[in-house]
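Subject: QacE family quaternary ammonium compound efflux SMR transporter

B.,
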Amino acid sequence: MQAAVEHPWWYLVVVLGYGVGFVLLVRILKSGTAVGVAYGIWAASGVALTALCAALLFGHTLSGTSVGGIALIVVGVVLVEWGAQAGHRRIGQEL
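Prediction pasted inline below.
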């Protein structure tokens, strides 16, 4: 939102971004992904993508700690999805 002070068209970009995010979240939930998994991935991705966009679009500096945090988010998202798939397979085998 910092950029919107000088360039109001960024408000449109932000609103469209939120709209796309919610549409994708709804589509993922309709596909059968568990709410906890979908929301966790959605929230974590938002944090990582915001930091990356700030660096790419506005020249913000990503410290080593920030890059490490983004890497941990990516690993965490992969592990959560991996665990959810394993749990889903296990439930299918019990039926």
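The chain has one domain: 3-94.

T.
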